[in-house]
Amino acid sequence: MMDTAPLRAAYRALLDAAATVADSGGAASGGAGSGGTGPAPPAGEWNADQILAHVALINATTIAAVSAITAGVNTTYDNRMALDTWTIERLITLAGGNAGLRDRIGLQADALCALGGPMLSDAELDTPVPTRLLSHGAVLVDRPLPLRDLITGLAETELPGHTGQLLALLPGDAETAVGTAVP
Fold first, then answer.
1. What gap in Å lies between CA 102 and CA 117, rounded to an integer?
2. Closest CA to 96 of 151, 140, 56, 154
3. Rounded to two decimals, what is the model's pTM?
4. Long-range contacts of range 27-31, CB-CB < 8 Å, 24 or more positions apart?
5. Do residues 159 and 10 touch, judged by C-beta distance below 8 A?
């Protein structure tokens, strides 16, 4: 069994940062379907809605992998669809924008914490999953990883990284704004 407290804390920090950015007027800035008037992200970076849509897509991919493992079938883990601009913008629209994305991520967090904790055996958590992870056009991982590492990677790297991206959209001292140090 896996301790999901760090995963739950990472989701809480991400959702707190997202709410803070939304309250500051930085929920979205540009991009099809986003239509907000908040601060513009640095060149080449995503606005808040795009960050949240990406996280929701990563969550869906992780839930699908966990579900496949619990069903005893083979699966893969590939984040390329979560990087696709059209898919991100489509999800923003389908979810109803920033508030809908935050609600969806909260529910996905509940599901992942339930599935990744008491439901999975150590044998399931140790199941190797062929994994391909890209970031900014560079391959970060292209090899099998244990399912356990995919889940802990959310808590240790993916969610804190996107929390930092959200906080960077705030004017002034982002660390004070939500009481979380930017990674």
1. 22
2. 56
3. 0.87
4. 27/97, 27/98, 28/97, 28/98, 29/169, 31/89, 31/92
5. yes
Beginning with the edge strand found earlier in the chain, give each strand of the sheet holding 128-135 in spatial order. Answer: 77-78, 128-135, 138-146
For residue 23, being part of any structural domain is answered with yes
The contacts of residue 46 (CB under 8 Å, 6+ apart) are 54, 88, 165
pLDDT of residue 119: 86
Domain span at residue 38 reads: 5-73+85-125+148-178
Cβ burial, residue 3 (10 Å; 0-12/13-18/19+): exposed
* Domain annotation covers residue 46: yes
Dmax (CA) for the chain in angstroms is: 49
**Backbone phi, then psi, for 45, in 5-degree steps?**
-105, 165
The lowest-confidence range among 36-40, 122-126, 129-133, 179-183 is: 179-183
Q: Are 36 and 28 contacting, i.e. CB atoms less than 8 angstroms apart?
A: yes
What distance in Å separates the CA atoms of residue 79 and residue 159, rounded to the nearest whole number?
A: 14
**Structural domains of the chain, count:** 1
- Residue 25, Cβ neighbours under 10 Å: how many? 15
